[in-house]
């Protein structure tokens, strides 16, 4: 009986060590993928922002102008994300509106049995 318990304990330790190593390796993979996606986003968005602006990227003045354009674009993107998130969080998510294609009126479905919203069910 003692040998069986020792064997089970040993297997649990081995599996635990293996899981710890795999989780660390997974963290490195997730971080590497995040960095790759960040670099791709930065490059593609920079190209999209300076496209058609007729900038000379071989001079320092051209890079300054391009960096100012990119920075202002990035600030506006984050401002728009903040505005959309704020608007969505202020909505009444308790009522669901369904649009009927044959009828132009909207039908609102309300839960009349209880006043529990979706967040309290989670």
Explain this structure to me?
The protein is mainly alpha-helical and 122 residues long. The chain has two domains: 1-51; 54-89, no CATH class. It contains three helices and two strands. The protein has helices at 2-50, 60-89, 118-121; strands at residues 96-99, 106-109. A two-stranded antiparallel sheet has the order 1-2. Strand 1 and strand 2 (106-109) form a beta hairpin. The radius of gyration is 27 Å and the shape is flat. The model has no long low-confidence stretch (mean pLDDT 81).
Summarize the structure.
By secondary structure, the protein is mainly alpha-helical.
What characteristics describe this protein?
2 domains; mainly alpha; two-stranded antiparallel ribbon; 122 residues; single chain; flat
Strand content: 5-15%
Query: What's the alpha carbon Rg, rounded to whole Å?
Result: 27 Å
Task: Tell me about the largest β-sheet.
Answer: 2 strands, antiparallel
Low-confidence parts: none
**Can you write the helix and strand succession as a string?**
HHEEH
Number of domains: 2
Report the mean per-residue pLDDT as an integer.
81
Shape summary: flat
Q: Report helical residue fraction.
A: 55-70%
Give the termini separation. Answer: 44 Å
What topology, given as strand order, has the largest sheet? 1-2
Please report the total strand number as a whole number: 2
């Amino acid at each position: 009986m003692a040998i069986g318990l020792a064997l089970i304990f040993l297997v649990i330790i081995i599996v635990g060590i293996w899981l710890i190593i795999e989780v660390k390796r997974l963290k490195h993979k997730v971080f590497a993928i995040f960095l790759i996606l960040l670099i791709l986003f930065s490059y593609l968005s920079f190209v999209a922002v300076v496209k058609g602006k007729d900038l000379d990227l071989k001079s320092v003045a051209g890079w300054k102008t391009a960096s100012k354009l990119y920075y202002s674009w990035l600030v506006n993107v984050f401002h728009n994300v903040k505005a959309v998130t704020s608007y969505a969080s202020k909505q009444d998510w308790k009522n669901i509106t369904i649009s009927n294609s044959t009828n132009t009126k909207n039908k609102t479905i309300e839960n009349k049995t209880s006043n529990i919203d979706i967040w309290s069910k989670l």
